[in-house]
């Protein structure tokens, strides 16, 4: 799935049932014509901040009913590993260098 738009809220504060304070962000991603939202805890937000429009992702999209209203949500985000992106970039550069070298050795 390709990200059409992404929106990350400012950091928010919540309180657990046991009274412990926690921090989270609301993240919205637009895929196709639909927005899907999720609550992301502070320790996981860097993955989402690195996403850009046009990035290909895998995630589970689902609907959730809350107080009689249906919401589109996402979970289980998987992105292409940054190391894989770097390696693919290096392979492309290597292919271009091979073409340049082979064309200049005539």
Low-confidence stretches: none
Instruction: Name the average pLDDT.
Output: 89
| Number of separate helices | 2
What characteristic shape results from the CA principal axes?
elongated
- Please bin the fraction of helical residues: 25-40%
Structural class: alpha+beta
Domains (count): 1
Order of helices and strands: EEEEHEEH
The Cα radius of gyration reads 20 Å
Distance between the termini: 45 Å
Please give the number of β-strands: 6
Strand content: over 45%
Largest sheet: 4 strands, antiparallel
Give an overview of the whole structure.
- The structure is a single chain.
- The protein is α+β, with helices and mostly antiparallel strands and 106 residues long.
- The chain has one domain.
- The chain is 26% helix and 45% strand.
- The chain is built from two helices and six strands, in the order ββββαββα.
- The strands form two sheets. Strands 1, 2, 3 and 4 form a four-stranded antiparallel sheet that branches.
- Strand 2 (12-15) and strand 3 form a beta hairpin.
- The chain is elongated.
- The mean pLDDT is 89.
């Amino acid at each position: 799935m390709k990200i059409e738009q992404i929106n990350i809220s400012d950091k928010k504060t919540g309180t657990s049932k046991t009274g412990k304070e926690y921090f989270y962000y609301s993240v919205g991603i637009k895929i196709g014509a639909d927005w899907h939202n999720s609550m992301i805890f502070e320790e996981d937000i860097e993955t989402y901040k690195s996403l850009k429009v046009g990035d290909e992702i895998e995630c589970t999209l689902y609907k959730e009913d809350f107080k009689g209203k249906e919401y589109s949500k996402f979970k289980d985000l998987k992105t292409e590993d940054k190391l894989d992106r770097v390696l693919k970039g290096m392979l492309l550069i290597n292919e271009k260098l091979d073409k340049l070298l082979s064309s200049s050795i005539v």
